[in-house]
Specification:
CATH topology of the largest domain in chain A: Ribosomal Protein S5, domain 2
Largest sheet of chain A: 7 strands, mixed
Number of helices of chain A: 10
CATH class of the largest domain in chain A: Alpha Beta
Helix content of chain A: 25-40%
Oligomer: homodimer
Largest interface: A-B, 41 and 40 residues
Number of domains of chain A: 2
Number of strands of chain A: 12
Order of helices and strands of chain A: EEEHEHHHEEEHEHHHHEEHEE
Shape of chain A: globular
Chain lengths: 310, 310
């Protein structure tokens, strides 16, 4: 195999209560990347549509950093290089896992071209190095669902233990991306280093409720559990009209709504496409009526994760 | 109905990572209580075997406090009283939910004698008032599994939201109660009011892993998730030979082990009765060889909770 084209989905990290440990993948939105072997032993990164402004030096781009981590673990020397051509539908800085998508697509594609020396789950730790380059922390709550699909839980970082969670087929995400930028690194800085044990207990009660609700499935329980008392109260201050958008989603019948990753995107979950569409329209209205450009997306949960297109 | 005899099981609260929110009920160990209507409009508490030293004044005994809460919600005046006769197999101060068992048996029995005005789940909040009297906090992590059986999650205290979790049939608990006493109120005091967010994230990763592991079921995941970085490191200092006992359980094949409630009892989970028996013997050896009297128990998880015997 000389060339491969892959799709890596947008992801929603945290999922309200699951700060730093939970995430899910979207089905109908993501980036595509064409990776091909080249004769020169170099990694050449070419920016396609949607990649404007991203660095093309492999040492500065998440693609290069993630593939570097993979090659180091691979250990064998190869007499060829790789060319990466990315088309991005996930805007960098949106909070929808744009860097995770690039890193995941790159390591997934390279692994295919090398004859699959690694299992998909093993690729997560390489893609995490891309996240480290992008945000300063090697978090896995975007790359795990991006690669594996579905809902994932990072039970532990040391050692890395990724759990593929049970979830119902009928589950839709509506996401709005207001056109303002928040850097993940800034958004992490404003969180407190210590939290009241009372809040921590509330949070793990909700994590437990959400995972139980997804497994049963119990939509009402999913909805009651989509509460974040740790990150949302602080981070939402950086997102204009967050409260209005959340309220609008709940009015439309959302099970719950919160910040996607570190924002500024906001997600809502619902159990029907019709409700998801109503939420997307309501999301859009909140920002349009306040003169802020916003993109909205509707998608089922993606069961496949990163996959081969051709 | 004039008289009823009920069984209320021993319970293991917290279940390692689920501090203040999780608990499960044991099958083969618990208290029995005979509740009968009496002509005088009073509540008479009589201590049977195992109740030595417990107060008999209804205002001081968890039975009286819990039944008082139930009657207040019931609202109607009745022209009779109740006599409570308890036989305790769960030692007070053991960390196996002794006060929860008394409170649960009492409200369950009274509810039956009143013609079941309340659903079983509604009884939890009355039994919680008994817990408030016993330990200073109206916690539900013992009374919920004691009344409902199985594994329960307190997703939220305000409003109270109790989730009956999925769990596998084949799951055994081994519990050792070393004969030293720790008061729940003391054991709560030594915990910190604020915790590092890093530890909180570890804890909710494990809560998620445990609930997912129980639902799938995935015994290995259950085992990896039975970790407590919040309460166990502090509370275990009050329990002599805790580390030895935990290590002994893991050596015998336990999925995991931790403190039962606020201690001093220690529990371990396993997937076969044979392993559970090996753990119980190992638990006993640790304490016997150090000159501390200890009781050991083996039980499957109790699916029924508090129930009518006759």
């Amino acid at each position: 195999m000389e060339e491969i084209k892959v799709f890596a989905p947008a992801t929603v990290a945290n999922v309200a209560c699951g700060y730093d440990v939970m995430g899910f993948a979207m089905k109908d939105i993501g980036d595509t990347m064409t990776i091909r072997k080249i004769a020169t032993k170099k990694w050449v990164i070419e920016n396609g549509r949607g990649c404007e402004g991203l660095p093309v030096s492999p040492k500065e781009n998440v693609i290069g950093v993630a593939v570097e981590a993979l090659m180091k673990a691979y250990g064998k020397s190869i007499d060829f290089g790789f060319h990466f051509y990315t088309t991005k539908n996930i805007k960098p800085g949106s909070g929808m896992g744009s860097s995770a998508s690039s890193a995941s697509a790159a390591v997934f594609g390279v692994n295919q071209l090398l004859g699959k020396p690694f299992k998909k789950k093993e690729l997560v730790k390489f893609a995490m190095e891309g996240e480290r380059a992008a945000s300063g922390a090697a978090h896995a709550d975007n790359v795990a669902p991006c690669l594996l699909g579905g809902f994932t839980l990072i039970r532990s970082y040391e050692p890395l233990d990724i759990i593929e969670l049970q979830y119902p087929d009928m589950l839709y995400a509506s996401v709005v991306h207001p056109q303002i930028e928040i850097k993940t690194s800034d958004s992490k800085k404003i969180l407190k280093k210590d939290i009241p044990i009372k809040d921590a207990i509330t949070q793990w009660g909700n994590v437990g409720g959400l995972i139980s609700g997804l497994a049963k499935p119990d939509y009402d329980l999913i909805g009651r559990s989509l509460q974040d008392v740790v990150a949302e109260p602080i981070r939402s201050k950086l997102i204009p009209y967050f409260k209005d958008a959340k309220k609008a989603a709940l009015n439309e019948g959302a099970l719950g709504a919160s910040i996607s990753g570190s924002g500024p995107s906001i997600f809502a979950l619902s159990f029907s496409r019709k409700i998801a569409e109503g939420i997307a329209i309501a999301f859009n209205n909140v920002y349009a009526s306040n003169g802020i450009m916003a993109n909205v997306y509707i998608s089922q949960v993606n069961a496949q994760g990163t996959q081969i297109i051709s």
